């Protein structure tokens, strides 16, 4: 068995043992199915990753969640289900077609009253959101174009408060982040974000590399400390 196949098999095993409810969840299953049917790229978080996001949001007692990068709304559903009854989730999506699919998926999951998808480049949507002076977001999930990761992290810091969590996805890039000869924009943007996490006085964080159905990658987990 190849290494990547083994990673997938272990992911499937863990999902079957720990997330059997997700496997039978109509809204989550339909979100993936409809995203595929609409031709969206198959880059949504895995079920185990979605459950991790949900657990983090619940540990936070999250009332306000910001997601940068909606895709088909699969991760949005996981996060939205963790909201307290008076909570709100704002998800930013660049592609109108992706946002249309996500909005239907979110409504099917019964979350349309708590979740709002805003369409447009995130670096244009974020200043507009800041102008609304929203309450500090308890959790920010960043999963958009990687070249702008540092910019997204900077905005996340502006829109959170002490004790907030920031999750930055896809920081390992199959190991490319550690290759000094790799200067692709997605790697440079990710390195810049990691450098900010490691040096900024208001941030305390770590990064974990992962393997599984999504291949070799990882995420950074960051707490706003002041």
What are the main properties of this structure?
226 residues; alpha/beta
Blueprint of the fold:
Elements lengths: L2 H16 L1 H4 L2 H12 L9 H14 L3 E5 L5 H7 L7 E6 L2 H13 L6 E5 L2 H10 L5 E6 L6 H10 L1 E10 L15 H15 L3 E10 L2 E10 L2
Parallel strand pairs: 1-2, 1-4, 2-3, 4-5
Antiparallel strand pairs: 5-7, 6-7
Tell me about this structure.
With 226 residues, this protein is of the alpha/beta class. It contains nine helices and seven strands; from the N terminus they run ααααβαβαβαβαβαββ. It has helices at residues 3-18, 20-23, 26-37, 47-60, 74-80, 96-108, 122-131, 149-158, 185-199, and strands at residues 64-68, 88-93, 115-119, 137-142, 160-169, 203-212, 215-224. A seven-stranded mixed sheet has the order 3-2-1-4-5-7-6, sandwiched between helices. A hairpin with a 2-residue loop joins strand 6 (203-212) and strand 7 (215-224). The mean pLDDT is 96.
């Amino acid at each position: 068995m190849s290494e990547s196949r083994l990673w997938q098999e272990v992911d499937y095993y863990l999902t079957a043992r720990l997330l059997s409810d997700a496997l039978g969840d109509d809204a989550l299953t339909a979100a993936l199915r409809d995203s595929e049917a609409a031709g969206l790229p198959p880059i949504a978080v895995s079920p185990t990753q979605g459950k991790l996001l949900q657990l983090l949001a619940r540990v936070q007692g999250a009332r306000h969640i910001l997601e940068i990068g909606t895709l088909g709304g699969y991760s949005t559903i996981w996060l939205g289900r963790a909201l307290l009854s008076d909570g709100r989730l704002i998800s930013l999506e660049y592609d109108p077609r992706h946002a249309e699919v996500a909005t239907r998926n979110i409504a099917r999951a019964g979350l349309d009253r708590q979740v709002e998808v805003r369409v447009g480049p995130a670096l244009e949507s974020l200043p507009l959101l800041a102008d609304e002076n929203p309450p500090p977001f308890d959790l920010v999930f960043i999963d958009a174009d990687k070249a702008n990761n540092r910019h997204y992290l900077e905005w996340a810091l502006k829109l959170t408060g002490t004790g907030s969590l920031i999750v930055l996805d896809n920081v390992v890039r199959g190991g490319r982040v550690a290759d000094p000869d790799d200067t692709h924009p997605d790697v440079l943007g990710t390195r810049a974000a990691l450098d900010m996490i490691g040096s900024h006085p208001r941030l305390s964080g770590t990064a974990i590399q992962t393997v599984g159905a999504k291949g070799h990658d990882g995420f950074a987990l960051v707490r706003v400390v002041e």
